[in-house]
Amino acid sequence: MASFRTVKGFRDFFPEECAMRNYIFETWRSVARRYGFVEYEAPVVESTDLYRKKSGDEITSQLFCFHDKADREVSLRPEVTPSLARMATTRHRDFKKPLKWFQIGSCFRYEEPQEGRTREFIQFNADILGDASSGTDAELIALSIDVMLAFGIKAEDFAIRLSNRQIWTQYLEERQVPAEHSATFLQIVDKIERAKPDETACKLANIGLSLEDVRAFMAAADENHPAFAALRADLTARGLWQYVRIDASIVRGLAYYTGTVFEVFDLKHGLRAVAGGGRYDKLCALMSDGSVDMPAAGFAMGDVVLGILLSKTPSAQFAITEYLNAQQGVDAYVVVADEAQRCHALAAVQALRGAGVRVDFSMAAQKVGKQFQAAENQKARFALVFGAEFPEVQVKNLISREQTLVQNEALVATVLEALKHPAIGPLIA
Amino acid sequence: MASFRTVKGFRDFFPEECAMRNYIFETWRSVARRYGFVEYEAPVVESTDLYRKKSGDEITSQLFCFHDKADREVSLRPEVTPSLARMATTRHRDFKKPLKWFQIGSCFRYEEPQEGRTREFIQFNADILGDASSGTDAELIALSIDVMLAFGIKAEDFAIRLSNRQIWTQYLEERQVPAEHSATFLQIVDKIERAKPDETACKLANIGLSLEDVRAFMAAADENHPAFAALRADLTARGLWQYVRIDASIVRGLAYYTGTVFEVFDLKHGLRAVAGGGRYDKLCALMSDGSVDMPAAGFAMGDVVLGILLSKTPSAQFAITEYLNAQQGVDAYVVVADEAQRCHALAAVQALRGAGVRVDFSMAAQKVGKQFQAAENQKARFALVFGAEFPEVQVKNLISREQTLVQNEALVATVLEALKHPAIGPLIA
Known about the structure:
Chain A contains 15 helices and 16 strands. By secondary structure, chain A is of the alpha+beta class. Chain A folds into two domains: 15-322, Bira Bifunctional Protein, Domain 2 (BirA Bifunctional Protein, domain 2), CATH 3.30.930; 330-420, 3-Layer(aba) Sandwich (Rossmann fold). In chain A, helix 1 packs antiparallel against helix 4 (134-150). The longest helix of chain A has 20 residues, at 15-34. Chains A and B meet through helix 1, strand 1, strand 2, helix 2 and strand 3 of A and helix 1, strand 1, strand 2, helix 2 and strand 3 of B.
């Protein structure tokens, strides 16, 4: 029998990858909190009907859906917004509007794995419910920009592609295209950059439009379009308009968005969108069968494309290294040079940890050389050697190589004091 | 159509519950790091065979198992240890032994929900691989104790129930019970406190033993038993032996544990075990078909019973309140008293957040009274009022009610300075 592997499209997070994941989580979390967002979490399993309600029957082809043992139709969540709408509409009276909520957790899609796409991925979701103002859209776009900047991704590395569904609604009205063609039309626009011009022109002709006219309108839709005026004023005041590019080809989830739509994308590597979102004012009413009508806007950022972008962005590396250095390893390694002193060493381990010091030691009897090697592997700043000198303990700075003898009873205070001084610590290899 | 609900046994984490969850996560994480453990994560979905291999076919009755669209037999993980064994054996050459690894994440069991038991629950797993010493067992038990203490759960509230599989192996050998009865016997011991004495006696008689003899042996198995000598010396040196009670009825997962077994349980409320674990030296060899033989020990602590215990333990409340106060709300709320100043207000919001200050404001135009109300709801320490006085900004301390006018250009520095002083902040209601 072959050894076990991960299921196709799923990932192991060994300690190094897990530390990187935690770095991403903490960055998302800290920027969201600066923006006054509060964290929530939804179940990983929801009824399949929840996703059908939002996206129609076709969605099930991309779902990890199954029947549980009581024959309930359930799915691993492909996204969190339907759960958010369920939660927020169920208890909307309990919270002051607007709700500024964020979430971080795994989602699952049954899609063919490829670069930037896994079957289990982690999303950061930020949404504002109960405020229809364009200031809300600006707040979300600003958050997405500040998240990128917090990762050390700079103006030359990324941009926001911005559009608004309304400009196409207006376009269709002006050309007297019947409303029932609206979805078809948006599908055509969504694919306009990738599809063959001939085919696109043919599809447009079917609903009475010409490719030239659509192209001309797209080219003319710039930041002076009135649909962007309020957003532009807001983001300009924040000094963030420089990150925005108007792009009328941005459409996103078809039946879903109602106004502003945007994507965060990298400028150098042609990756998939790092994040995307917009205004979806009708979802809460849809999910609550009309009982709670609450305007809403939000965006989601995945960890997979972001991770690729971080690995390709030199200016992002410094913060990562700093984080990993701070998180990994221990402060002190207790070396038992004389097994007769193990009891005293254990008492010191306990006292140091109790004082908040990260301490490791060899749980089994080991040669002293091996213990020092382990201390180095663990990137310890100090080795604390319990040997024949006890009750004196040798404190050895593993970076400067200085060493000194300390009375055991003063050990915790000495280590705490020494740790206050910034060390030129051993860098992560 | 009725509104959507969570699937049976699954939980929503609204912001307050999510903050509590994060408090539990951070406490687990910080104590584990003090002990020199590093974090990993495994996939939520694994092949069902992984769990069959460890636990036999019966396990599938408790699994959320299904066939994916390519007919793979997969399961939502019911526990993380099989994934850990898979990961650690696959890449065992890449890591120095011993591995001290911890993990925090959701697990899933198809069991009837009841107090202390949900279908999706979160586990903290701590394991040490590659070290067979009793010092490893002591390290894990010490970690479980320090985690409880870190939550403010005190000596009078909890204890460790400790046993060792070896004492029963030795017992059976001394009474010449054939090895093939060992599993049956342990099952009987596992249920000895709950089953009817008559039935237990009958079952024991079938394998040539008497209930009286088993009971007498259990009563005699105290801390002086040689199986506990090394553990006792170690934990005594750490000052932690006081938390331990020898309890020979502790058996735990049948085919799995090979030596030390222990549970963390509360002393006042009769809850299910808060955590449990032990030594499982044969699992890595089993999961790698004998190719990697690595001793191992570990324990898991769930969030559900722990959460109930925290809610019932007064001494645990202070730390929770302190955490929630620090995490929730914002530092400053920007009030736009004059819409003509919104641009300046937005610039200030951006500058303050850029300096790390948590700031909220009303994204839509609002009456000043409503904005101050929102500032209170958000537990802001300061309101920063942009009105006709601009470029002077009114800084209002919402706790002391003091207020002062500050030049806009000095605003960030003023707020940063003011936040340095500990405030008697508004407590969470």
